[in-house]
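Duplicate of #3305? Posting structure anyway:
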């Protein structure tokens, strides 16, 4: 199997580590910030990585899969203030809703889903380590900043120039402030920061406060997977600044290069011609789709798009996959075994080409190859039901 690595732009053999029982895959995928209903952009990313996990495990290779929950972050606190609720209650409610959605969509749950609020000790230790090694500095505003200029490869993962990185930070309102009492350079980012009113706070040698966003994932990844992961994944919108910063601080902290042996990123899902997002108000949430289609149909529709490309959500296209699932439900007998399964395997080995794998599934359905269809659905649909939830 080969995968496309974001950093090098090349197809690499599936990277594997030496585990206690032989080769294994160590996978870290950036999870949700639980402050709003999970939309299809989230579902797309996590269904893609679910197929990766199931496919690798079907080859007899164990997968150690970690996916975090970012329950200490600015958007969560802002939503809690808006709704007049505690950030803890909001995070617990939305995390439960997310897990329920993904369970209905038939995922193989991650082995570990660490919450930032439970991992403060390790996160704080990572920030302290970077300070001790000279990669971070304290500012009079009470923050500890990573000095991006100390990491020569900053910008390589995202292939962005300094000007492009600054523009992206400005768009995401992460640029911050440079000057006396603040950070030294616009690209520097906080490892630890003072907490605002109503936000959680923990003691540290830098003063009371909370972690910066990027250091959270580095520390959790290292705790559960070690200093190096085989694959680090997430949505394409995380390449910069999140994954760029993760790479820089992780390799600076441990000296282990590379931090991730391959980076995999999923494309953005659009609706009404724009990226699906909470701020634009153009979300399609998982529960909306389940009102008109079975969980298996929703998964197959998501996976009918090449994982690393952006694509447009369309209701009529979802309906076509519900019709395919209806055909599968109506299959009788074992049919004849054909070449579809071999094509299916070749497709997933070729950088997880799920659209090509679905074409093989369609051929198996057309030929009445029930056993082949069941094998393919076990990877593509997981445990998602073939019948609509209301049925």
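Output from current build:
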């Amino acid at each position: 199997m080969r995968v496309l690595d974001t950093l090098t732009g090349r197809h690499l053999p599936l990277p594997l580590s030496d585990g206690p029982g032989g080769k294994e895959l160590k996978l870290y995928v950036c999870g949700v910030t639980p402050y709003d209903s999970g939309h299809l952009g989230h579902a797309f990313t996590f269904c893609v990585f679910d197929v990766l996990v199931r496919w690798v495990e079907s080859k007899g290779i164990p997968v150690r899969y970690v996916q975090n929950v970012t329950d200490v972050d600015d958007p969560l606190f802002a939503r809690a203030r808006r709704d007049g609720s505690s950030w803890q209650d909001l995070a617990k409610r939305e995390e439960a809703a997310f897990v329920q959605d993904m369970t209905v969509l038939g995922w193989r749950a991650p082995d570990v889903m660490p919450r930032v609020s439970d991992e403060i000790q390790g996160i704080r230790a990572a920030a302290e380590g970077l300070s001790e090694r000279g990669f971070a500095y304290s500012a009079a505003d009470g923050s500890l900043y990573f000095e991006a200029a100390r990491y020569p490869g900053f910008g390589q993962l995202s292939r962005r120039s300094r000007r492009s990185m600054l523009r992206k930070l400005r768009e995401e309102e992460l640029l911050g402030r440079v000057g006396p009492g603040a950070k030294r350079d616009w690209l520097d980012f906080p490892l630890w920061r003072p907490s605002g009113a109503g936000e959680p706070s923990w003691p540290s040698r830098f003063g009371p406060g909370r972690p910066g966003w990027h250091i959270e994932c580095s520390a959790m990844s290292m705790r559960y997977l070690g200093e190096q992961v085989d694959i680090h994944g997430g949505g394409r919108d995380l390449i910069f600044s999140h994954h760029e910063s993760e790479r820089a601080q992780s390799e600076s902290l441990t000296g282990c290069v590379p931090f991730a042996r391959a980076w995999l990123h999923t494309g953005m899902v659009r609706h009404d011609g724009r990226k699906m997002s909470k701020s634009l108000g153009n979300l399609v949430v998982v529960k909306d789709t389940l009102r008109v289609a079975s969980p298996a149909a929703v998964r197959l529709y998501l996976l009918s798009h090449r994982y690393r490309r952006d694509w447009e959500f369309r209701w009529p296209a979802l309906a076509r996959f519900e019709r395919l699932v209806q055909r599968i439900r109506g299959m009788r007998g074992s049919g004849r075994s054909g070449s579809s399964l071999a094509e299916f395997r070749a497709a997933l080995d070729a950088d997880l080409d799920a659209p090509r794998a679905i074409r093989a599934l369609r051929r198996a359905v057309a030929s009445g190859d029930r056993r082949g269809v069941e094998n393919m659905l076990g990877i593509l649909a997981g445990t998602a039901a073939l019948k609509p939830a209301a049925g």
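Confirmed duplicate; merging threads. Residues 294-306+314-380 form one domain. The two ends are 38 Å apart (CA to CA).
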